[in-house]
Design a protein that fits this description.
Blueprint (H helix, E strand, L loop, with lengths): L3 H7 L15 H5 L6 E6 L11 H9 L4 E6 L13 E3 L5 E3 H15 L2 E6 L21 H18 L5 E5 L15 H10 L4 H13 L7 E4 L20 E7 L3 H4 L11 E5 L4 E5 L1 H8 L1 H10 L3 E6 L8 H15 L2 E4 L10 H8 L3 H9 L12 H4 E3 L11 E7 L7 E8 L5 E10 L2 E7 L12 E9 L2 E9 L2
Parallel strand pairs: 1-2, 1-12, 2-5, 5-6, 6-7, 7-8, 8-11, 11-12
Antiparallel strand pairs: 3-4, 9-10, 13-14, 14-17, 15-16, 15-18, 18-19
Helix pairs in contact: 3-4, 5-7, 11-13
Length: 478
């Protein structure tokens, strides 16, 4: 079904990612602030009455989204002998999950959508939506290795595709899910008591995938439904191409309220992070709910993805709630993906608009199509890391480029300055080293890395310093 926003975006409003995005590697795209914005689509919908077909992906592309997270049931059974997974509705029809995943990937490719595959089940792992404590993978090393082999096979199958930009190792790892809402320390103690080491499990899976896909971005999620309140239980992985992924259904009583317009935002709800009733607004999300994610981002300069968030039914203040979460992502340079695109009536924003007279899709699409060019944490960019205009400009044959790092930027940091041409192709690396607090200077003589003289024209110079990225224009006149 086509909606009003489809025609609006057909008229020419499309997502404009960074100018040089097409020349970036898959992981470099994740290093660009808020580059990926999109929705989740679930492959099990291919097997139900809410059938997902090519049109769903085409419509999603039209909105301006540049990412679809394909939620996959995996390709191996949960229990021994862990055979290739099948789905049997009534005993008359057998469908292999691999075929279903192939279909979903084909739809994304046909639409020109970059896609992630999020694996929800496999040897020993029951999908979190169906798991009532029955998953055995958390302490079974054989199943952990078999699950890693399944991930390896998925990565290898789709790896040649440039649109395949990430593999989410598992969705909402949930050992001791019965401790929902309990303090972080209680969950940590329960994990230690039964020998569950989620970080070690991640290491097994990462190592398995790396045997076939050394450069594929991999997603590591938080423990306990990937609730940001428990993100401190996830450690920095040894691998250097990891995207750290969280979901945000906080506060749960708001995002999953069972009736429309039953709750309001901002308002007071239970906080898992503080173990108290708190007033949830944008400031509380920034400073408390996402505090552990901000810590790992600022300490290690790693990409972050809010991979699921949304509301199941329209609520009072719902547009502000969704907008606040997307704004926080943009201000921190995080990527985001909403749950869920044209699924069942809940979490289906086009349906909510039509049924309840709301304007959720219009609000969401403002953010989906917003070009994000920098990262802001608790201070303005200028206070932490500043890139100055080159001088002279225009120039011939040489120009000076300066930038400043303050103590707030947590210097020393690795600073990189690149020159790009009008098509976004990198032509020269001017700097790649750690720099301390202070003002630093580099020079460019209008040549590429091979020493060849470049023609007159507009060029861009980009600074990456820790979590910050800036880009400016300069004009070379021969």
């Amino acid at each position: 079904m086509r909606h009003k926003y489809h025609m609006m975006f057909l008229a020419g409003i499309i997502l404009l990612p960074s100018l040089f995005s097409q020349q970036l590697s898959k992981f470099e795209k994740w290093q660009q602030p808020s580059y990926f914005k999109g929705f989740c689509i679930s492959d099990w919908n291919n097997l139900t009455d809410t059938y997902v077909a090519q049109q769903e992906f085409t419509d999603l592309k039209i909105t301006g989204a540049n990412l679809v997270i394909i939620q996959s049931g995996g390709i191996n059974a949960v229990t021994a002998p862990y055979a290739t997974n099948i789905w049997d509705a009534d005993g008359s029809d057998i469908i292999y999950w691999q075929d279903v995943l192939d279909d979903m990937v084909t739809y994304a490719r046909n639409a020109g959508l970059q896609y992630m595959i999020a694996v929800r089940s496999g040897p020993g792992r029951i999908d979190v939506a169906e798991d009532e404590g029955g998953s055995t993978i958390w302490t079974n090393q054989q199943e952990q290795r078999l699950y890693g082999q399944m991930l390896k096979n998925i990565a290898k199958r789709y790896l040649p595709d440039d649109l395949f930009v990430g593999l989410d190792l598992t969705v909402e790892p949930n050992p001791h899910g019965e401790l929902a809402g309990e303090p972080v320390a209680s969950l940590a103690a329960a994990l230690a008591a039964d020998g569950t080491d989620m970080n070690a499990i991640y290491s097994i899976w990462i190592d398995s995938v790396r045997t076939v896909a050394p450069n594929l971005p991999l997603m590591v999620q938080g423990i306990h439904w990937s609730n940001p309140a428990y993100f401190s239980l996830v450690k920095k992985q040894a691998d250097d191409k990891i995207v750290y992924k969280t979901h945000c259904y906080n506060p749960f009583d708001y995002s999953h309220a069972e009736n429309a317009f039953a709750e309001s935002y901002p308002a007071t709800f239970w906080s898992d992070a503080t173990q108290n009733m708190e007033f949830f607004n944008k400031t509380f999300f920034e400073t408390i709910v996402f505090s552990e994610i901000r810590k790992i981002q600022t300490k290690y300069d790693v990409p972050v993805l809010i991979g699921e968030f949304g509301i199941s039914y329209p609520q009072n203040g719902g547009e502000n709630y969704l907008s606040d979460l997307m704004s926080i992502a943009e201000e921190n340079g995080w990527h985001f993906s909403l749950w869920n695109w044209n699924n069942t009536p809940d979490f289906n924003y086009a349906y909510l608009d039509q049924t309840y007279g709301t304007d959720y899709m219009d609000s969401i699409l403002v953010h989906i199509n917003k070009k994000t060019t920098g990262v802001k944490l608790s201070r303005t960019i200028g206070e932490d890391c500043t890139l100055y205009q080159n001088y002279p400009n225009p120039f011939n044959p040489e120009t000076t480029i300066r930038f400043h790092l303050s103590a707030a930027a947590k210097a020393p940091v690795r600073a990189q300055i690149y020159v790009l041409d009008m098509r976004g192709r990198m032509v020269c690396t001017l700097l790649d080293e750690r720099k301390a607090v202070g003002t630093h200077t580099v020079f460019w003589d209008g040549k590429n890395d091979k020493g060849q003289i470049l023609p007159s024209g507009l060029y861009f110079y980009q600074l990456k310093a820790g979590i910050y990225m800036h880009i400016k224009k300069m004009l070379l006149l021969r």
